[in-house]
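Reopening: N-acetyltransferase domain-containing protein still failing for me.
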Amino acid sequence: MSAIAFIPIDLESTAELCICFRRDAMAESFAGGAERFDLASGDNHQQYLDWLQQRLQEFPEGCVHMLEGNSIVGQIEMQLTGQQSLAYLNMLYLVPAARGRGLGNQLHDYIIQIFQQVGVVKAQLSVSPTNQRALAFYKKHHWQDLGPRPEDPELHLMDLTVGDWA
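Support: Ran it again with your exact input. Result attached.
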């Protein structure tokens, strides 16, 4: 396995790749997920790119690409909420060829490290209950399934106490 590194997303050079990763993540998570993303992200996915640019400005270490050697094999999108000690994980993604090789654990280790550095105590994410692979991954890493999100019952809210990883 090549060396792993995490670098902030460079939207100028990787915008199309970010869109592809987000579309694939949505397709993996939901029936019709890619189309759902396309509809929600506007013409040429500009709303998504604007949203991602805002996240990069607010929390650059929270929006990164994972490099294996010289290849981008993963993407993380996370944000700090208005509450100082709470963060939200928007996306944890690996390209299909990188799955099943332990790289997901390294993605997760990175998010925990960053959360601890910035003082996050609790983290949350949303996951489709039909995405069994993601559910198993998050449960293995001690995320607790809080059940359907009130505002979007198609998704489950998961919660992690970051201090459990200290």
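The chain has one domain: 4-165. If you still see a failure, please send the error message rather than a screenshot.
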